[in-house]
Amino acid sequence: MNKPDTIVLIHGLFMTALSWENWVERYTGRGFRVIARSWPGMDVGIDELRRDPSAVEHLGIGEIVDYYDALVRDLDSPPIIIGHSFGGAFTEILVDRGLGAAGVAIDAAAVRGILKLPFSQLRAGFPVLKDPSNIHKAVALTADQFHYAFTNTLSDADSKAAYERYAVPGPGRVLFQGALANFNPHSPDAVDFKRKDRAPLLLIAGGADHLVPAVIDKSTADHYAKSGAVTEYKLFPSRSHWTIAEPGWEEVADYALEWATTNAAVPVAADA
Questions:
Q1: What DSSP character marks residue 36?
Q2: Which of 34, 60, 103, 178 has the smallest set of CB atoms within 10 Å of its CB?
């Protein structure tokens, strides 16, 4: 197959597509068509979404993945799909559906079957999961909660700047669906780890990540190991969950792109 010329970027919870602004510029400058769209209902200005997040209160994993599924299928050729956090989990699901020429899942939220649950992840998710009614709400992190979960390697001032530019309320339902995936045999947050005919998949982890500790992505890679499909794991030891924008993000972006373009050599037929 021809090398892909399009990259689809999928953001995570508490973010919008704006979180990819640096990557969009970098990849566009290298001649790629880059598509970075926010989750359904989140394609409005940051300030507007903060004032009124009601459009995403009931948004769930199934609706989000189906949105990107339709976007990818509408393209002329399979793209590279890169996702961060829950966007990383969604990337895995899309690749499992037979989509994409290569997938890169960065600090990816756990899919069904991953049982690791480190304390830092519990603490980072507690502000949402502590109240079951949040499953029907759009919930915002405070600046302090954001600093612990996303930007723990940054100074207070730099974390606050990131929070003020990028953080938005996120649909609590997504986090609850992810947290309860192992108790739901029909969870939308699931893949077939043994699938052989999917696109190559790279899992990137950060050694200082509180929200999705590296042990999650390593466990995910281990689950894929016997599938026969190309799967690799890369650890950046000192990077936080904010790896896509904290200082040094260029190294992560370049590694992801080089890996994807090098390995995107297996043609994958999308499901009808």
A1: E
A2: 60
Taking phi first (over 0 means left), then psi (-120 to 50 degrees means alpha), and beta for anything else, what does residue 203 get?
beta
**Measured CA distances, 136 to 46, 56, 181 (Å):** 21, 9, 17
Could you give the CA distance from residue 33 to residue 211 in angstroms, rounded to a whole number? Answer: 30
State which amino acid sits at residue 162: A
The rounded distance, in Å, linking the Cα atoms of 183 and 11 is 25
Give pLDDT tens digits for 78-87.
999 999 999 9
Backbone angles phi, psi at 106, to 5 degrees: -105, 125
Which pair of tokens denotes residue 260? Answer: 């994807």
Region of 211 on the Ramachandran plot (φ > 0 left; ψ -120 to 50 alpha; else beta)? alpha
DSSP codes joined into one string, 57-94: TT--HHHHHHHHHHHHHTSSSPPEEEEETHHHHHHHHH
191-242 confidence digits (pLDDT tens): 999 999 999 999 999 999 999 999 999 999 999 998 989 999 999 999 999 9
Angstrom CA distances, 139 to 15, 89, 213, 260, stand at 12, 20, 22, 34
Rounded to 5 degrees, φ, ψ at 126 are -60, -40
